[in-house]
Specification:
By secondary structure, this protein is mainly β. It has one domain (4-137). The protein is built from 2 helices and 11 strands. The strands form 2 sheets. Strands 1, 2, 3, 4, 7, 8 and 11 form a 7-stranded antiparallel β-sheet that branches. The mean pLDDT is 85.
């Protein structure tokens, strides 16, 4: 049986942030993030607590650039899909670990909306994309 973790996924293509239970392996992670290369991990604090954000480090080469993580000054930290969990050191490197119910609530409390306008011809459309606003980058 595979080891599973509880995590949050920011899906910029669907404009959703959702809770997921996924297998704790690289293949599943890449499928959930809709990427083809090994993802990058960066730590951010939310309300003073450290979380790990896993994402495609090649996001700047993908269009359109849709933000998923902003800092407290409104600066984009990550574009594109992102998975939020915890990681712990191990002999094999870092292993992903589950979020608690309190962690998930803290992430939900950190959600804001990034508003953009899309214009095609004479029609203009306002698009609201959910983003997670973090305290600090580590």
């Amino acid at each position: 049986m595979r080891n599973e973790i509880d995590a949050m996924v920011i899906d910029t293509k669907r404009g959703q942030i959702k809770q997921v239970k996924i297998a704790n392996d690289a293949e599943t992670l890449m499928k959930v993030l809709q990427i083809s290369s090994i993802p990058e991990v960066v730590g951010f604090k939310l309300d003073g607590k450290m979380f790990d954000f896993i994402f495609d480090d090649d996001f700047l080469n993908k269009k359109p650039l849709i933000p998923s993580v902003l800092d407290g000054n409104g600066q984009t930290q990550i574009f594109g899909n992102c998975l939020i969990c915890h990681t712990e050191p191990s002999e094999e490197g870092r292993i992903k670990t589950s979020l608690s119910d309190k962690d998930i609530q803290e992430i939900k409390d950190s959600i804001d909306f990034y508003i953009t306008k899309k214009t095609i011809g004479n029609k203009s459309e306002t698009i609201s994309t959910p983003v997670v606003v973090v305290d600090k980058v580590y």
